[in-house]
Each structure stands twice: as structure tokens, then as C-alpha cells.
Amino acid sequence: MSAPIDHAAFRAVWSAEPADNITLLVEYAKSNNHDLLALQEAVDKTALHDVIDHAHRLAGAAHIMGALTVVDCCRALETAARDNAGDAVVERAAALRDEIRRVHAYIESLQTA
């Protein structure tokens, strides 16, 4: 399985030293936790407009950081919410959480490397 961060995309944005990149990725992971909690709250309340907003915010940050599969998951979630597809929203939110966990685990592995 490929790395969940596209390092070429990430470096194209930041062009920083490797240690600085890791610091930025760690901060990105921390900020995701707040957004994920807010997203789950919106999913639980079936607040689809809020789901769209949180998914959009997560997608923007993921794009900057090179987490392109997270971006794809966010877009799928936004589409499901716009289509008012309740079951699909729950499924897409779960897929997004799983992918973000994979990104976080990858970032943790970079810290110990």
C-alpha cells in the first residue's frame, strides 16, 4: 500500500527542511482531531450542511498537506451529504475517519524514523 501522504505534492507547497515537514505534518494531525469530532457530531445530528462544511475544511487542509486520499474521501462525503443520502453519509464519514487514522499512523511513523 502506498504512503498516505504524497510527498511531492506536500514539498511543492512547503519546500521546507525534512524536520520542518514532520513538524507541519504533526500539527496537521492535531488539527484534524478537532475537525473530526465536529464532523462526527454533525453526522450524528444529521446536520448535512455542517457535514459539508467540515468535510470541505478537512479536504482543504488535506490537499495542502498532500493527503490526497483524504481529499477524495471528503469529496465523496460532501457529495453524499448534498444528495441527502443518510446511509452513504455515515459510510463515507467512516471511510474518511479510517483514512485519516492511516495518515496519522503514517505521520507517527515518520517521527520515529
3D structure, described in words:
There is one protein chain. Helix 2 packs antiparallel against helix 3, helix 2 runs antiparallel to helix 5 and helix 4 runs antiparallel to helix 5. The longest helix is centred in the N-terminal third of the chain and has 27 residues. With 113 residues, the chain is mainly α. It contains 5 helices and no strands. The chain is 84% helix and 0% strand. The chain is elongated.
Précis, in short:
This protein has 113 residues and is mainly alpha-helical. It is built from 5 helices and no strands.
List the helices and strands and how they pair.
Elements: H1 7-14, H2 18-44, H3 48-65, H4 68-82, H5 86-112
